[in-house]
């Protein structure tokens, strides 16, 4: 990777333009873009989760798994499962935390709660998480998880 600075007097004060060049777009490029977009934005210390007649304030590090079940978004923590409404991608965006990795169309996990991976009978993988929580990993998303794990 090469990094260059080029002065551009046509930009307004305070504006920064970043151009990434590569032969082809790759997972590494997408991760770099995500990192640059999150530059200087801190993840929230707690996330408010509205459920029926409660609003829970949950620390993101305590969230094990986010899973869509029917029309509900289920937030798994070590001491409870909180049903709420919303979209998976919107909840992941609200967390603004690189520790959460989408592993299927309907689920995202906190990589810090990942204990092991097992081959499932369908040929995919199953993630074993804290408190024996299990979830399937879609083949489409497996490469992203493997890359994040350094495999």
From TrEMBL:
It holds the Pfam family LytTR. SMART domains: LytTR. Signal peptide: none annotated. Residues 47-151 form the HTH LytTR-type domain. GO terms for molecular function: DNA binding; phosphorelay response regulator activity. It comes from the Bacteria. InterPro entries: LytR-like, LytTR_DNA-bd_dom. This is Sensory transduction protein LytR. The lineage of its organism: Bacteria, Bacillati, Bacillota, Bacilli, Lactobacillales. The gene is lytR_2.
